[in-house]
Amino acid sequence: MIAIIGAGKMGEALLAGMLARGHAPEDVLVTEPREEHAEELRRRYRVEVVPATDAAKRADTLLIALKPQDMVALLDTLSPHLDSDRLIISVAAGITTAVLEDHLPPGTPVVRAMPNTPALMGQGMTAVAGGAHTEGAHLDRAEALLATVGEVIRVGEQHMDTVTAISGSGPAYFYFIAETMIEAGVAMGMPRATAQRLVGQTITGAAAMLNDSGEHPVVLREAVTSPGGTTAAALRELERHGVRTAFTEAIEAARDRSSALSGS
Ligand SMILES: NC(=O)C1=CN([C@@H]2O[C@H](COP(=O)(O)OP(=O)(O)OC[C@H]3O[C@@H](n4cnc5c(N)ncnc54)[C@H](O)[C@@H]3O)[C@@H](O)[C@H]2O)C=CC1
Ligand SMILES: O=C(O)[C@@H]1CCC=N1
């Protein structure tokens, strides 16, 4: 039995993705304190929504998707109802395996995971790192669970704040670019639906080229950039406005925020 504790944006994306790809609703418990939302989850997914302490008693794997600031209080509430046979998976940004272990029964295996919202579509990217009592079989279990909603890679925990900044927050950067490109098209007189379709499929096509061609992005970009052409004119403007530096510093800010959340 799997319990998803906290069915907000990320918890619900994981829940929906898992149910769409192989998990039966009767094998999944959910904890969600917002009663109206809990009712919606029961109706939409046919899952049992139970208090966190019940989930702790009944599930062998607990996937916790609360805000980082709420994690420690929840773990302190759950801990008396747990034993060290349970696998705890946390998707909270910044919360280290050491912090998780400090608030769980001694010897509890924990996995720190960083998914992203495309999990909802089965297109997630999740990185996982194990704690001090986490064996290969625990990581295999976490990986198999998260593989139902997309790709999974294992990383050293020292990389998790960077993962959070790149792929955890990453979808938002692409939506930001998409929104900007669509608005530019609309400002030029194009119907919004046409602009959105052009942008959406261009992102999908560019992602397929990046993932499947085996080429470095510089090579792919050069292939688009005809001498004296339109792309060169656009890229010159992006460089003039410091977009490369802005992205680098944005990702550093996200990494630093993730790292700061461990003390929350
Ligand atoms: N939103 C995203 O794209 C991603 C979020 N995360 C992580 O997922 C976690 C949740 O983030 P969001 O889903 O964005 O936030 P959210 O605010 O949408 O979800 C948090 C949920 O936890 C519930 N909750 C609060 N106290 C609770 C308790 N005591 N027991 C059970 N549930 C409780 C809230 O009602 C809410 O539904 C955060 O730690 C975040 O770092 C990780 C990767 C991506
Ligand atoms: O914005 C956040 O803090 C979370 C973590 C990664 C994506 N969303």
TrEMBL record:
GO terms for molecular function: pyrroline-5-carboxylate reductase activity. InterPro entries: 6-PGluconate_DH-like_C_sf (IPR008927), NAD(P)-bd_dom_sf (IPR036291), P5C_Rdtase_cat_N (IPR028939), P5CR-like_CS (IPR053790), P5CR_dimer (IPR029036), Pyrroline-COOH_reductase (IPR000304). It is found in: Cytoplasm. Keywords: Amino-acid biosynthesis, Cytoplasm, NADP, Oxidoreductase, Proline biosynthesis. It catalyses: L-proline + NADP(+) = (S)-1-pyrroline-5-carboxylate + NADPH + 2 H(+); L-proline + NAD(+) = (S)-1-pyrroline-5-carboxylate + NADH + 2 H(+). The keyword Oxidoreductase applies. Residues 2-94 form the Pyrroline-5-carboxylate reductase catalytic N-terminal domain. It holds the Pfam family F420_oxidored. HAMAP family: P5C_reductase. Belongs to the pyrroline-5-carboxylate reductase family. This is Pyrroline-5-carboxylate reductase. The gene is proC.
